Amino acid sequence: MKNKSISFLLLSLTFSLFTIGCNAKSNNTEVTGSGKTVYDFTMKDIDGNSIPLSKYKGKVLVIVNTASQCGLVGQFEEIENFYKKYKDKGVVVLGFPANNFLGQEPLSNTEIKSFCTKNYGVTFPMFSKISVKGNDIDPLYKYLTNKSENGVLDAPIKWNYQKFIIDKNGNVAVSLSPRTSVNDQDFLQSLEDVLK
After folding, report:
1. Does pTM surpass 0.85?
2. Nearest residue to 36 (alpha-carbon basis) of 147, 190, 162, 179
3. Is residue 116 annotated as a catalytic residue, yes or no?
């Protein structure tokens, strides 16, 4: 009888530990497809300096691919105004010039920086020109656009000014179409959901 009691006690203890272990595990942040976040990437800023994106830990990021000769270029002004309004709330915009659509970003990094500053007063961080689709896609954009990498969604880049909202843990939250302005209700609602 004593052996049965000890066996039952050991079995109960093992089951309790197993249950606690399972519950603790279920509270962890969900791991993405590749186990990566945007914080695993280091990018060159518009001046050619290496910037680890982990610099932005704890911030909500808005990542956008830009082009100076695109019909949507007016979004630069909207995005800059948005950045000024939301940066004190922990939001950072990261701009990535790309020449993937009809050669609409023919400028060099130096020319892009001058264009953005002179015409739109851009103060949000701008990065060196990269490819956002195709065989030479930058690893950051491979991560952003493939569910197998980010664990959340497939969102191939449709055109210039596609936006990704990244949560405070560095995970992709949502992708919004190029024509969706940062002033649109869809964008602002998605942002508020991540800021909560």
Report:
1. no
2. 147
3. no
